[in-house]
Amino acid sequence: MRGLFAKTIREVWLATLLFGGALAVVLALLTYILPLIQKGLTKVLSHLPFVKTLLTAMLGSEAGGEITAQTMQAFLWVHPTVLAIVWAHEIVFCTRMPAGEIDRGTIDVLLGLPVSRRAVYFVESAVWLLSGVLILAIGLAGHLTTAPGMPAEMRPELPRVILVMLNLFCVYVSVGGTAYLVSALSDRRGRAIAVVFALLLASFLLNFLAQFWEPAGEIAFLSVMSYYQPAQILRSGQFPTSDVAVLLITGATAWCFGCEVVARRSICTV
Length: 270
Fold this sequence. Notes:
By secondary structure, the chain is an all-alpha fold. It has twelve helices and no strands. The model has no long low-confidence stretch (mean pLDDT 87).
């Protein structure tokens, strides 16, 4: 087990730091320009009211009568670039085993080690969770480096930001669990990545369309973004217990099914 941990960490540490560094840079830049965005957006809204509807669709929650400081703070955590970095990391990571190993033809070597398939799956998953914590922590550090330069009324309260990060980590768990299940059912890593990417794109699109199209609103609960509402957390300061429960249960269920598929399926590299 110790050797498996060392092997996995050795293979993923560089990519994890690169993704974390990219997230830190993006959050630092977004935090720095956020006051400028709000000033320009206020002028735009006075002439183009429909822009507020687009902003509401992006945030996934009602923006209210005006663009408040809490609304703009939430923009940091729902920006497509931020979500893309987090999701790209776990899609790449969670499709390593077994799809990636089968694709490379090295699964026989990995499963030939004197440990069970479940043990390999558990070790990969533990490093995945630890890497997720590390990436989000590095991203938060990037945000905090430029947050002191924001106007006092726009500066997010750290306890509320941490609640948002916890909610984002639960999204990370849900998406990663699904990616592990897709990987367990696949023999080609490229195909597994494409499937997970398509699911995330559909989820993001559904959450957006739900703000404009009633039929989409009726099935919006299928979107992972329906359970990630930074604007509401920053506004109320309350931890979204029900949303977190749905995300964790979904991720854990998919992960468990993936574990059983890996443990029981017939794997052939020929």
